Amino acid sequence: MPSRKPHATPARILTAAAVHIERVGLYQGDHLWQPGRMGDTAPCTVLHAWERGVRSVRPCWSVSGEPWNIFQRALFDSLVVLSNHINGRPVSGVRWRKLKLSEGAYRRTLLWCWGDEPERTTAEAAAMIRAAAALHPSDGDHGIPGCPTVKNMV
Fold it and tell me: Which is a Pfam family this sequence falls into (predicted)?
């Protein structure tokens, strides 16, 4: 049974994230989890918007095989391109190894911290996410997971 969701690509994930944050607004604050104040309509963080983008292209649970492989590559590639874009250059592995974090945890932390900078705006967050989406073409082939070409980096 084919998935009804769009084909998973980094650009689709990031575009959905930008649309979500534009719709609900940017949340800034000390508390990551506030039950009753989050969801489809409450302001969200850049990290949460990215996660919403990921969910928007996730294959149906009943689907197996290649759609999940494509999804996993797109998920990781979108996190890499977005965190590299926020960082202004490719993120060095030295950073997460020194902090004894996984690569994914470190990159997610970058998303959280960038969006939580004082006076950051919803428009600025959405524009940054859209700019990152433009760095990774929607119909691009996933050659090596997590390794966009140098020309795609800021």
Answer: DUF6197
